Amino acid sequence: MSPFNRREFLKSSAVAAAAASTAIASPAAPRAPGFHSPSTAGRGLKLACSTAVWSEDAASLEKALAGISAAGYEWVEATDDQIWPYRERPAELKSLLQRHGLGLVTVALRGNFADREQRLKNISRSVLLARVLEQVGAGALVIEGDWGAAERTPLNFHTYSTNLAEAGALVFEETGLHCAYRFHEAEAADVRKIIATSDSRYTKFCFDTEYFAQTGIDPVPMIQAYGPRLIHVHLRDGEKTGGNWRDLPVGKGSLQLRPVMEALCQSGFNGWVTVQQTGAKAPAKDAGASRRYLSQQLEAAALKYPDRGASEDARDDSGMGHDMAQMQQPRRSMLSGLVMIGAAIRNPSALLQPAAFQQQDGTNPMQQATQDMKRPAERRSAPLLPKDPNFAPLFFTAEQYADVSALADTIVPVTNTPGALDARADEYADLMIWLDEKSHDAARAEAERFRDLCTQRQGKLFAQLSPSQRVAFLNELTSGNASGPEPAREFFNRIREWTVRGYYTSPQGLLDDLGYKGNTYVAEFKGCTHPEHHQA
Could you count the other beta carbons within 10 Å of the beta carbon of residue 383? Predict the structure, then answer.
């Protein structure tokens, strides 16, 4: 970002409004009159309704809020064009919500984050709307990104995700709110590309059940895989008629939503589930029917997994607990992380937080410092989340990727420490080669030559060889007798480079294998401790 004053830019930026959305709270508890702050809603899954249900008759915000309140909701999600007029009058918005006994939980903002010209405008709009949400106690801003006319190239995916991360970092720095990206890409493969290139610190997720259904994505394994980054859900139901999708009240369509509710409860989801429906002819009736159905499903799911909320409070590094802890540093210091966003995908270790020095008693500070320095070495890295259920290589074919995985496993095998596959270094290699568009032709030719040469010499594909056969083949391939350029050898070198870099910048390689302790206070510097280096 350029060095001008961001606050002045945001104040002077006259940006058109997009979608503002309001969410409504769980009807499980007795309804309380007056304004509700989402920050008082407690942990767990909470139910809300979107003003989009009233979009068919172009209802005003006042009319939509009245209908949502009458339907029995306590929490609302609005469109940003509804909330934009209140950006400098948050007290009036709060008064409006109070009249209807509602709390505003989020706003859904749509903006183009792929276009350089529109990037700053949409980032400023994100921050200005987040300020309104902060005033009413909301905890998240939903971003419905738009690609415009931009091509879906690797570079553009990287740029798009970097811009989302910058918006998320600025929103958090200004307001303390998180940004949740609501996927709407045309193809399921593009969802994985967004996930692969996005920054988990600043880009959280909003899953939409209807969108997943239309793109052939099963939401349950997605919740299981990305639960720690999931902070908002749009719950929609409907059916296909004549090739077109038609929204229906939740529970009246063809989608199986009970497993979704159970997966959310099982994962310890702590956020809002917003009822969404477009084209409703009788919005009040449909919203009420959705609330009654979801209340029953939520009650059944909560009974099935009653202790998940409490257990999630006790989480450490293993999920959102660690992620949220990273975000608790002073907000302005979050901006320093922006200088790393563009490079983070090439240097994941930049995202690791150094171990903190905490003096526990004042009797001997130097001795205490030494103890604190040693303590992080006992920490083990958090287990990896379940592998992406929709995983497919971004660059290599499935057959080529099998060779990449086998190579990574051979380069850094499992010993008394994790191996390359434990750190998913094979996925990292595939991602990095995909991002380097200039190397695509060479990488494809090298991969094919590697497969052909291995089949010629070993009679099998590399992935089908035993560990000893793999080592023998690689020794022969990289022996000093080889002369001239050999594409197969270049393929091995390429995969080795990314495997080693991916592994040793992962928690498994950096913490478990190398025992990295972070920037710790050194009470005594002993110099070299290797006896062989002290021989005369």
Answer: 12
Answer whether 452's CB lies under 8 Å from 477's CB.
Answer: no
% of the chain residues with pLDDT over 90: 55
Integer Cα distance of 188 and 203 in angstroms: 18
Q: Is 166 helix (H, G, I), strand (E, B) or coil?
A: helix
CA–CA separation, 468 and 347 (whole Å): 32
Residue that terminates a domain, selected from 313, 343, 363: 313
Which of 32-46, 339-353, 405-419 has the least mean pLDDT? Answer: 339-353
Domain assignment of residue 415, yes or no:
yes
User: Which of 313, 348, 371 marks a domain boundary?
Assistant: 313
Q: Is residue 264 part of a domain?
A: yes
For the cut 70, the answer to whether the pLDDT of residue 382 exceeds it is no
From residue 253, how far is each of 51, 216, 236, 277 by CA, in Å? 20, 16, 9, 11
Residues 270 and 151 in one domain: yes
Predicted local distance difference test score (pLDDT) of residue 515:
86
Residue 349 lies in a domain: no
44: left (phi over 0), alpha (psi -120 to 50) or beta: left
Are 305 and 418 members of one domain? no
pLDDT band, residue 349 (cuts 50/70/90): very low
Q: What is the mean pLDDT of the chain?
A: 80
Instruction: Tell me the three state secondary structure of residue 173.
Output: helix
Give the mean model confidence (pLDDT) for residues 12-20.
Answer: 33
Q: Are residues 112 and 235 in the same domain?
A: yes
Domain count, the chain: 2
pLDDT at 389: 82
| Sign, Cα dihedral of 161, 166, 167, 171 | positive
Its domain, for residue 491, covers 398-505
Give the pLDDT score at 483.
59
Residue 225: give its domain's CATH number.
Answer: 3.20.20.150
CB atoms within 10 A of CB 460: 13
Residue 531 lies in a domain: no
